[in-house]
């Protein structure tokens, strides 16, 4: 299985944007995580802790719109043109390495593949054409 989904970045108004998208597309959020849910978040300013770390809204049978708030306290800044990623989720560890290494070749690794609290491996890069990518490997439940 491989999914390719749009991942939108917002400057503090992800929640408002996704409430709007839900009013248009319908459906329910399948994930809504705040930065307060992240390990170590107690060191963040309270306003940032309440912002959206990850939100997912299915908008059809095969597409999920995803998003996050860009957080100044994490040294993140929103730049025009950098407000989205293409997010790939796979259920095969070999695929995540092959895809990440292939797309990042000649580009910039922003976050190397590594273990995260929500899944086995996650990484981010910008390809040699300037497109931002996110890679997520979630081990299948057997």
TrEMBL record:
A Pfam match: Glyoxalase
Domain of life: Bacteria
Segment forming the signal sequence: none
Domain Glyoxalase/fosfomycin resistance/dioxygenase: 11-135
The name this protein goes by in its record: VOC family protein
